[in-house]
Design goal:
Oligomer: single chain
Helix content: 10-25%
Strand content: over 45%
InterPro entries: DUF4295
Radius of gyration: 13 Å
Number of domains: 1
Order of helices and strands: EEEH
Structural class: mainly beta
Shape: elongated
Protein name: DUF4295 domain-containing protein
Number of helices: 1
Distance between the termini: 13 Å
Length: 50
């Protein structure tokens, strides 16, 4: 299951954010769905782990 930071959203002089798209497999049907999240750039690695 590939997880990747797709885009970095920037605000001048503000906090930096990252948009994360995760592929999540349904255990019953085996189909994949995608979850999108916007997190702080510093916390992006932790968001991908969990």
């Amino acid at each position: 299951m590939a997880k990747k930071v797709v885009a970095t959203l920037k605000k001048e002089g503000g906090v930096k954010y990252a948009k994360i798209i995760k592929a999540v497999k349904n255990p019953v049907t085996g189909a994949y769905t995608f979850k999108e999240e916007i997190v702080l750039q510093d916390e992006a690695v932790n968001a991908l782990k969990g």
